[in-house]
């Protein structure tokens, strides 16, 4: 029987993801491995019931060269993805077969604490089942193409004995240990190009444009995109803003521009300063419990304050669908080559990483869980002018 490995993609889509996925599979097959694709990230392992064949084909698949021959030409993930964290599974997401008391050969017996958590509506940790499925699938190792959250869980599994190799894949470039994550370069370039196009429309209509880009917890991509595209003002999630001060500056930007327009680039989770929020209770109430996608609300508030119409253009998902640029094509192939080399050498519990001074290297997977390591974006943002500081270029490790 051929050596068998599993591979999954978890977290948000990133340009170059399918290129890397294909390269890992091709190289692994050439090294004599059978590759099992796990569908929908960690969700595929969660919903796989070893005792029920009906759950198998929907959650795992055998990866062959002919099956994935052309996946590098498309965006998204061929295996599909999800943000599910097996360490914190909501009660409604727990598969029915895991709720039932063990019978016969069923591999997983819900503990008293698990049943109590479900009864109380609390998230549950289903790592025991994930490890059981990895064992039942007879995987010698699991390759995880993931973002920060997915790789943090991969490190947890590695610490509990599951052979893991991680590959950093996120447009936010915030995986600790690696100066570069797959998809970051393309998302940055695509964001700049979109702002150029929105600028042309804003100039034609002589209006202020609000462009919403990625960034729920970090404004790195937003700051860099805004700086490189020449946006007038910028909002990031790390620093709350005063709408009145912001609209005043934007209207001044519009006034001094010969073409009578201005550009505001903002992260999708930008937030109003708490001491000002009460003034905008009506607009904020329509956000509900959402933590991202605040662009429409911000635009409405600014329009009301300015007494004029604004252009609003969200770009968040579009930044994930671009054709990968040269950096991300090279990164995809190099990460894949490094990952398979590690497999062949029997080195697991490792993160395939890129370090500016060291090129492509492998690090302990636990590196992704270490505190610090990423830049403090707020240090490179002027909260009084709503502008990035030029030093962000150096700090961002491009």
Describe the structure.
This protein is of the alpha/beta class and 398 residues long. It has helices at 17-30, 42-46, 96-99, 112-120, 127-136, 148-159, 184-205, 220-229, 243-256, 274-277, 281-285, 295-306, 326-344, 392-395; strands at 3-10, 33-38, 60-63, 141-146, 164-168, 208-213, 233-235, 262-267, 310-314, 350-355, 359-364, 381-382, 387-388. α1 packs parallel to α13 (326-344) and α7 (184-205) packs across α8. It is globular and about 70 Å long. The model has no long low-confidence stretch (mean pLDDT 92).
- Main pleated-sheet profile: 7 strands, mixed
Helix content percent band = 25-40%
Gross CATH architecture of the largest domain: 3-Layer(aba) Sandwich
User: What class, by secondary structure content?
Assistant: alpha/beta
- The rounded Rg comes to 23 Å
User: What count of domains describes the coordinates?
Assistant: 2
Mean pLDDT: 92
Spatial strand arrangement across the major sheet: 3-2-1-4-5-10-11
CATH-assigned fold name of the largest domain: Rossmann fold
Overall geometry comes to: globular
